[in-house]
């Protein structure tokens, strides 16, 4: 594998002898880019995408889809050689590095994994004109790529976005659009927060009420709040879309929606084709008001109140059966249990919970939650899965093999403590990574320049930092247009923080590059927040 890369480097060096001045506006910034003099590569009718390994059929089809939808050209996928070549060499699925070379005759992407090839495809999308991102064909365009040699690899393996379709619902189509946008910027983890106190968005066949009843409700304070703001700010992006309203037999309007298991499989497949793992989160034991309303026996006093009662065997059986279905739908090994913001006081007044504390020899209600998390972790592990949870899962003790999402930016020691104990961490502190918080030019710069990775970690602790993600909580995001406004363009800053080495991140160099990407975002149909706007 290394021999191959060294050969590639040599090819770059030879070509560099005739290189033009290097200038690239690729985001995230690649490790090395050498622009060459010479005629560009031209996409034409009948251009072939050729693969050297059957495993590349998926990536090739994805590239074909991207290229044909905007160009209207006939592009074929075949084995062997072609004008665009995807080459898998000495396969190593953990290695996302890739090389891309383009000259007038050929574009070649070489990598050691399908993920590496998909990262190369993301770069190729950006080397083509922004119109390549249109969803419908454009006549009369020259689809060219300037001669170039790029060598690239990510700094972090985990580059994610979390979406909350619970507080407000987003359709399968809207979700796929976000996944496609993520793929352009080499995000590779989609954390899908599928349950919360307001609603349940995933069909669970063993517990049909969760979505029959729990996916729908009359407008709540969040919905009304969004609509009030829509009026005050004269902003239709804050209105609840009528497509998510259904009328009951007695004429009442309910807002909501959910994903069937078939739809979930479709989203997981669409993400996989773009090199994105889907990490489901069904939050437990807190944030469960709606589940407790649907099945009151889940709650401590049988009264339908959050959180789940951890003293009752029936609750544990529920949690296991729910996750058994989740494991069937999501192939990725990491699955999140949530575990944040649990109101544990109800457990102090519950005879079942107190009995569990006694029989398990636990000290208090924090240890009761830790007991539950460890129990579920064993269940996850028995099904070949690894458990993830928000950083509250550290309280009351945590097994070494659980991964922690550091979200509480006001608890700066979380990563230090977790990695000291040997736990892996994904960074998403709200101080930088909550994309539902207001975005301004200042927050964009603060995100780009800030140290998301704590600076006081030892090299050994740093190895336990898997990467970073942004969280898009849905309370004030009722439409995909509003989501775009909150998420872009700052997602591009996060993409670079997660991919490019810290020493290479320079705001003054990034900002003009970001500006060049704005027309590309427009072509993707993204209603991003323009720079220098006062609009909230
Ligand atoms: C969270 O924001 N409650 C993880
Ligand atoms: Zn209880």
Reading off the top of the CATH hierarchy, the class of the domain at 155-187 and 411-418 and 426-536 is best stated as Alpha Beta
Q: Taking all residues together, what is the mean pLDDT?
A: 95
Rg over CA atoms, rounded to whole Å, is 24 Å
The CATH topology of the domain at 155-187 and 411-418 and 426-536 turns out to be TIM Barrel
Under CATH, the homologous superfamily of the domain at 155-187 and 411-418 and 426-536 reads: Glycosidases
Q: Beta-sheet strand percentage?
A: 15-25%
Can you describe what's shown?
- The chain is of the alpha/beta class.
- Among the domains are: 20-152, Chitobiase/beta-hexosaminidase domain 2-like (Chitobiase, domain 2, 2-Layer Sandwich), CATH 3.30.379.10; 155-187 and 411-418 and 426-536, TIM Barrel.
- The protein is 37% helix and 17% strand.
- It is built from 19 helices and 20 strands.
- The strands form 4 sheets. Strands 15-11-10-20-19-18-17-16 form an 8-stranded parallel beta sheet. A 7-stranded mixed beta sheet has the order 1-9-6-7-5-3-4, with helices on both faces. Strands 12-14-13 form a 3-stranded antiparallel beta sheet, with no helix packed on it.
- Helix 4 (172-184) runs parallel beside helix 7 and helix 9 crosses helix 12 (365-382).
- It is globular, with a radius of gyration of 24 Å.
- The N and C termini lie far apart (50 Å).
């Amino acid at each position: 594998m290394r021999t191959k890369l060294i050969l590639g480097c040599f090819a770059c060096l030879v070509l560099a002898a005739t290189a033009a001045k290097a200038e690239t506006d690729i985001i995230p910034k690649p490790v090395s880019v050498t622009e060459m003099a010479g005629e560009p590569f031209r996409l034409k009718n009948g251009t072939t995408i050729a693969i050297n390994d059957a495993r590349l059929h998926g990536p090739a089809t994805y590239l074909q889809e991207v290229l044909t939808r905007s160009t209207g050209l006939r592009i074929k996928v075949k084995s062997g050689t072609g004008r665009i070549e995807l080459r898998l060499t000495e396969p190593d699925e953990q290695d996302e590095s890739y090389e891309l070379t383009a000259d007038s005759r050929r574009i070649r992407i070489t990598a050691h994994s399908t993920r590496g090839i998909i990262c190369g495809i993301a770069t190729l999308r950006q080397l083509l004109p922004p119109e390549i991102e249109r969803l419908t064909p454009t006549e009369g365009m020259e689809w060219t790529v300037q001669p170039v040699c790029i060598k690239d690899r990510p700094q972090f393996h985990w580059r994610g976005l979390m979406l909350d379709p619970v507080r407000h619902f987003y359709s399968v189509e809207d979700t796929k659009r976000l996944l496609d946008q993520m793929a352009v910027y080499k995000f590779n983890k989609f954390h899908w927060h599928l349950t919360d106190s307001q609603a349940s968005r995933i069909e669970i066949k063993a517990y049909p009420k969760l979505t029959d009843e729990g996916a729908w409700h009359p407008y709540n304070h969040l919905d009304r709040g969004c609509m009030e703001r829509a009026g005050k700010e004269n902003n239709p992006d804050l209105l609840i879309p009528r497509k998510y309203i259904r009328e009951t037999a007695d004429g009442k309007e309910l807002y909501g929606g959910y994903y069937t298991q078939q739809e979930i499989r479709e989203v997981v497949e669409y993400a996989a084709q773009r090199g994105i793992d889907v990490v489901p989160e069904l939050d437990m034991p807190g944030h469960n008001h709606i589940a407790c309303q649907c099945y009151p026996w889940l709650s401590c006093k049988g009264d339908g109140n959050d959180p789940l009662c951890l003293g009752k065997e029936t609750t544990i059986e529920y949690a296991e059966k729910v996750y058994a279905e989740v494991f069937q739908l999501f192939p990725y090994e990491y699955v999140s249990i949530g575990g944040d913001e649990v109101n544990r006081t109800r457990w102090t007044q519950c005879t079942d919970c107190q009995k569990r504390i006694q029989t398990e020899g636990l000290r208090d209600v924090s240890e009761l939650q830790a007991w539950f998390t460890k129990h579920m972790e064993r269940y996850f592990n028995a099904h070949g899965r690894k458990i993830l949870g928000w950083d509250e899962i550290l309280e009351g003790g945590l097994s070494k093999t659980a991964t922690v999402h550091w979200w509480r930016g006001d608890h700066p020691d979380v990563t230090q403590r977790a990695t000291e104990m040997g736990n892996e961490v994904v960074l998403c502190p709200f101080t930088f990574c909550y994309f539902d918080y207001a975005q301004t030019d200042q927050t964009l710069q603060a995100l780009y320049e800030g140290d998301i990775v704590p600076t006081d970690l030892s090299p050994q602790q740093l190895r336990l930092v898997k990467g970073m993600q942004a969280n898009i909580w849905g309370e004030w995001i009722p439409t995909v247009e509003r989501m775009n406004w909150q998420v872009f363009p700052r997602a591009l800053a996060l993409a670079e923080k997660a991919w490019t080495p810290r020493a290479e991140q320079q705001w003054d160099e990034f900002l003009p590059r970001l500006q060049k990407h704005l027309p590309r975002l427009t072509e993707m149909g993204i209603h991003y927040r323009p720079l220098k706007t006062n609009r909230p």
